[in-house]
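Students often ask why inverse folding is considered easier than folding. One informal answer: many sequences map to the same fold, so there is more than one right answer. In these notes we will look at a single instance of the problem. The structure comes first.
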């Protein structure tokens, strides 16, 4: 018998001083049986960092569907405006996404993020619509400690730094942009 996804509900309160966006979002996320709390929380953080009141931003089937990203933003015609990946995707997946979407954003995390980027950087350099951020491993592990089936996340963003708090604790995640680095 196959394991089923676990449903998480989150109320995300965003105060993004970098983009002057302030809003609240109620989201329901399915956590794949093979997904960790860390990956789930990075997906929720990515949502908070890209939320802007536009209803087109949505979670996809993620790990359950290989032809979809973790999140995407569709326009009214169904065209993909933003393709958002979490983790360390291979360069073929990134380049395919760059051909399908107006903008591709990768939130790389984990101990191997720097090594991964060194391996794919030159091969994805021609993609002009790609933005890659690295999240520190210790920060995403602290973020994982905040995971609950029902949670209220307060996300305050200033100078590419996200401070995330819940009633269980807090975590600060520095976003380092890798694309454009020499």
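Output (designed amino acids):
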């Amino acid at each position: 018998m196959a394991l089923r996804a676990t449903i998480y509900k989150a109320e995300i309160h965003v105060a993004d001083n970098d983009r002057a966006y302030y809003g609240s979002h109620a989201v329901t996320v399915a956590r794949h049986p093979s997904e960790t709390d860390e990956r789930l929380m990075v997906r929720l953080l990515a949502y908070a960092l890209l939320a802007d009141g536009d209803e087109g931003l949505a979670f996809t089937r993620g790990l359950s569907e290989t032809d979809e990203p973790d999140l995407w933003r569709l326009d009214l015609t169904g065209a993909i405006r933003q393709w958002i990946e979490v983790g360390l995707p291979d360069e073929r997946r990134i380049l395919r996404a760059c051909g399908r979407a107006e903008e591709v954003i990768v939130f790389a995390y984990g101990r191997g993020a720097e090594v991964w980027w060194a391996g794919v950087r030159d091969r994805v350099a021609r993609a002009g619509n790609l933005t890659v951020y690295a999240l520190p491993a210790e920060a995403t592990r602290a973020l994982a400690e905040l995971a609950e089936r029902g949670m209220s996340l307060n996300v305050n963003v200033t100078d590419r730094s996200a401070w995330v708090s819940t009633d269980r604790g807090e975590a600060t995640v520095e976003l380092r942009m890798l694309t454009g680095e020499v």
